[in-house]
Amino acid sequence: MQEYLKDYDELQACLRVGFQFSFAQEFSRKFMQEPYVQQKIAEYQRKDSQTTESDKALVLNVLREAAQRGPYASRVAAAAKLAAILGLDNAAPADNETDKLIQAFKEFSEKAPV
Fold first, then answer.
1. Which residues does the chain have with pLDDT short of 70?
2. What pTM was computed for the model?
3. CA-to-CA distance for 113 and 110, rounded, in angstroms?
4. What angle do CA 75, 76, 82 make, to 5 degrees?
């Protein structure tokens, strides 16, 4: 199972665990039809999606930290990246004070010396 999850290629997984090519072709198909194998793949994919969400949260936290406490150039770059990730960097006209401030900050970050 672990070998399959490396590249999602059942034939290569069988070869990596030591099957001869002729047996690997047959057994790779059989393994993929097993309910246990399908269940384990589904479990891994659920766990992987949870890990991806925690990675996203970590990246956002690091960017927030850099935007607040980093050197000037890092603050500007981190704030611009956060704005892009959060969808605050759109070119739509600003219709209230918050949007105007966001737009001004974006323009400032693009023109600031690095």
1. 91-95, 113-114
2. 0.41
3. 9
4. 85
Residue whose structure tokens are 């925690």: 54
Report the distance separating Cα 86 and Cα 35, nearest Å: 40
**Which H, E and C letters describe 8-21, residue by residue?**
CCHHHHHHHCCCCH
* First-last CA distance in the chain: 48
64-75 as b/e, with b when 16 or more CB fall inside 10 Å?
Answer: eebbeebeeeeb
* pLDDT value of residue 17: 92
Residue type, 78: A
The span from the CA of 84 to the CA of 12, in Å, is 39
Return the pLDDT at 74: 85
Angle separating helix axes 35-69 and 21-33, nearest 10 degrees: 80
| Single-letter residue type at 102 | I
pLDDT computed for residue 18 by the predictor: 93
